Amino acid sequence: MTSVFGIDYQNFINKLYASIGPVSIVLIIMAAALIGGFGVSRICKLLKIPYVTGYIILGIILGPSLFAIVPTYMLTGINDANALINGETVKVSFAGLSFIGDLCMGFIAYSIGKFFKFEKLKKAGGKTLIVTILTSICVGLVVGGLTYIIYGLIFNEPYNLAPAFIIGTVAIAISPTATSTIIRQYKAKGNYVERLFLIILCANVIAILAFTIIIGVVASGESVDASIGEILLSASIPFIHTVILVGVGILCGFILSLLNNYRRTNDSRIILVIGFIVILVCLCSICKISPLLPCMAFGIFYFNFAKSESLFLQLDGFLPPILCLFFVVSGAKLDFSYFSHASVLIIALVFCLARTGTRILSVRGFGGIADFSRTDKKYLPLSTMTITSVAVGLLNMATLVVSGMSEATLEMIDYCYAIVLTASVVLEIVGPVMCKIALIKTNSVDPATLIPPTNPKKINKEVAK
User: Fold this and answer.
1) Which of 49, 68, 231, 461 has the most C-beta neighbours closer than 10 Å?
2) Residue pLDDT, tens place only, 11-65
3) Are 275 and 349 within one domain?
4) How many domains does the chain have?
């Protein structure tokens, strides 16, 4: 990425950063994101829009395409460094800010576990799962089919199904990060919120499992001599890793419920839960899978084993700075050079419109199966527009899986990444506003959060008069 302010400005920033070192760069970026995040949250409050939208816009402003406060290499990983190991020089790479997405997703996935009680899942989970499966199939087929047609027309490759499968599967995903942030901001609760999170859970299970299989097939397809059995084995490995780590998440939930007894202080409890989340995210990174399902399983089973929300409430106070950093970094990834490619803009626009339209029609059409009310049918699609955290996480995973493969495969993944990231930023700006409207219309929002705070000094002056 190159800044719109020109190459001279870009060189000035690069020289400045080269002189201060990577640690200082990380600290500068974090300070700019957090202090800037506070500033845009005040503006968002005046405009009565969710903070998430402001964080995304701030990220775009700080990103490599504008002021370049967040350089490109910090988004994907700091430059490799040489390390001496057993007398040999080995290249060691550093994470930069790329770990923030997975870590934030891990915290969010764990925190929404409190919305899933086994008793309620038994009552409404089955029917809601059926509706979500049918909706997901429709979304994947429509978005994937349109991508197949447009990609074929643009690249004259009508028989290349890989981009269609990848983009169609990503379209099924729903971001729990933005949704939970808005719910926290407006203190929303009730049956609508519980149903919304159940749909998010089911949709992401489908998207992640399908994506891991598809990307495994794409990776194994690189070998001309690969047999059907070898392709299936390669495709099943990420799926098996996901299932195993979901089991590890359940085990972590059980262990934490035993450790978190009345003798533990609040400090010890928060240290324990953060430690378990970081372990799960680390294992997922090693296995090159999304941390969403394992961390969600951790939260759900801990909540049902421990029968307590206290630890979730305590973690809520830890999340705001992490969420701010996540959305700022997400916005910074938008490359303005994408806008010069008509094909990227066309497919991204089709992605946004087709995904939203299909979800609206599908929920209205299939909602009767799960006895969705008229209000649910109308507003649930508006609450499920955002995809950034899961979509970007899946494509980052795909980039790791196909690294070292043919130039054509790498270009195809980069092209899909450009489309999905462009669409994600658009949906991340519009989606939170729509989600806020839906929460208000369904009476899920705490009315006190919509009333401007009263200035105590002003009250004292009026009383004195």
Assistant:
1) 68
2) 888 888 888 877 888 889 899 999 999 999 999 889 888 888 889 889 989 988 8
3) yes
4) 2
With both helix axes pointing from N to C terminus, report the angle between 176-186 and 388-402 in degrees, rounded to the nearest 10. Answer: 150
CATH code of the domain covering residue 131: 1.20.1530.20
User: Do 443 and 190 touch, CB atoms closer than 8 A?
Assistant: yes
Q: For residue 372, what are its two tokens? A: 């969705």
Q: Which domain, by its residues, includes 38?
A: 7-77
Q: Exposed, middle or buried by CB within 10 Å (0-12, 13-18, 19+), for 330? A: buried
Q: What residue type is 273 in one-letter code?
A: V
Whether residue 169 is found in the same domain as residue 268: yes
Provide the 10 A C-beta neighbour count for residue 138.
Answer: 18
Residues 6 or more apart whose CB falls under 8 angstroms from that of 191 comprise none
Same domain, 378 and 444: yes
| 1, part of any domain | no
Statement to judge: residues 183 and 234 lie in one domain: yes
Record the tokens describing residue 361, joined without a space. Answer: 């029609």
Is 459 inside a domain boundary? no
Does residue 458 fall inside a structural domain?
no
Neighbours of 11 (CB within 10 A): 11
* Structure confidence by residue, pLDDT tens digits, 202-242: 898 899 888 888 887 777 765 545 566 666 676 678 788 88
Q: Say how far apart CA 192 and CA 27 lie, in whole Å.
A: 40
For 88, phi and psi rounded to 5 degrees?
Answer: -115, 145
Out of 77, 109, 139, pick the residue that ends a domain.
77
**Angle, vertex CA 389, rays to CA 383 and CA 392, nearest 5:** 125
**pLDDT (mean) for 363-381:** 90
**Burial bucket for residue 293 (CB in 10 Å: 0-12, 13-18, 19+):** buried
Whether residue 25 is found in the same domain as residue 166: no
Please spell the DSSP secondary structure of 155-211, one letter per residue: HS-TT--HHHHHHHHHHH---HHHHHHHHHHHT--SHHHHHHHHHHHHHHHHHHHHH
Sign, Cα dihedral of 183, 168, 130, 251: negative
Count of CB atoms situated within 10 Å of the CB of 60: 19
The residues near 92 (Cβ < 8 Å, ≥ 6 apart) are 80, 81, 82, 83
88 SS3 class: strand
Residue 364, exposed/middle/buried by CB under 10 A (0-12, 13-18, 19+)?
Answer: middle
- Let me know if residue 457 belongs to a domain: no
User: Both 182 and 277 in a single domain?
Assistant: yes
The alpha carbons of the chain give a radius of gyration, in whole angstroms, of 23
Helix or strand or coil: residue 368? helix
pLDDT in tens, 267-291: 888 999 999 999 999 999 888 888 8
Domain boundary among 45, 77, 109: 77
Asked whether 190 and 275 are in contact (CB, 8 A), the reply is no
